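Kindly inspect this one:
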Amino acid sequence: MLRALVTAGVTAALLIGPAVPAPAVPAPATTTAQVTGAYLQITADGVATSPGLEGATHAFAALAAIYDVTGDQQQRRSADELLGYILRVRPSHMNTDIALQMLRSPYLQGDPRLRTNLETYLSAVLDLFAAHPDDVLRTGDIRTLSGRAELLVKYADQLEQRSADPTRIRAADTAARAMLDRLAALQYTRQEAVSSFHNDRYVGAFPHLIAGDDGSMGSWDIEHWAPSMLSLDQYAAVRALAFGYGRLHTTAYNDAAASGTRHLLGTTQIDPDLIYAGAPAGFPLDGAMYETGEETGEQPYLITYGWSPNAIAQLGTALKAVRDNRVKVPHSAAWLASYWRGTPPRAVLAPGQFWLGLDAKIRYTHRFIEATQLPVPANFPWLDLERTTFPGTGADEVRRDGWYDGSGRGAMSAVYSRLAMTGYVESGGHDVDILNRAAQWWERMVVRG
């Protein structure tokens, strides 16, 4: 049966605003001039756009992640300069993404300004929950809810390790538990998936919006989509539940994380036959059609959407959270009836097999990121090289060492590349050569005046 493949444009609409044309990316500048921003996007024809604060925040996060692995002092100097610029423009800079990165980054934790901003930000989250819990639990999108839950769990862990204020720890745990309970309740059972979408592929998936009793996908027509088409939503929810289980040992969080992981284990290989070879070729585009059947499970959807390096990298973070927190697949008949669709095979339910599968898939995410750093090699198997013009396969100075955004629009985005970079490092990708090359691409994105 043919199904339309809807692309990562949904994610792009959430993450990227319109770009303003600017001159082509210059050659790397010396570090004597003051940083005045970073580019947000490179168009398909090699033009850098939207230099400023937003691009700088992504470049800073990426270089910070790289430096934590490589220890390269030039990368640290560049990150320091970017942070100096960011805090001049926005002294209280902090958000959930950078807060989560701080809690795993020795470099970021070493900056007293960021530590102060983190405490202020977390106090605001806890105060909002204490004063208006429904605003936290029943408004907004699931990535905001998931991100806050994961952040509070990790924050409480860190406070405990420092023997910090028990009252603060209890407040973080209380708020995190309420958010995780909400996440678990929002997960679609088989009955809910069929009644809402007429599609049992959504068993174990999560809604996009968290309003109402059962959550909502808003106005998106997703009856024929697979959950992986909203991958960043799914990965964030699974990751938060896995970390919640690791700290709070609540069975419901284990069970929800396990059923959410079912969508993510389809394969550890790319099947060249699943490529869309339309015009332009090489990426999942609007209107791309795939023949799917029950024998394929989620695989075609997961793999084709997974052309986005940012999605593959973030997939790795979710799988590593499940693995590291020792999530196990339940064996109860009631859970199987409600949350297991039948794919992957039941053989993966044994804890040892489940964890081996997670390990293999995490390694796959690393291979994918490492293989798709630009320019891709001439024998790259997933592109119709006769018809595609992006990404470049030669000595392309503008795009070299970064990652395409995977959306089919022929552009490179600092947002997507940051998600690819930080996700790769967070999931255990530590190829120093890859990271050093990526740092050079980020250096070319920095604007100095």
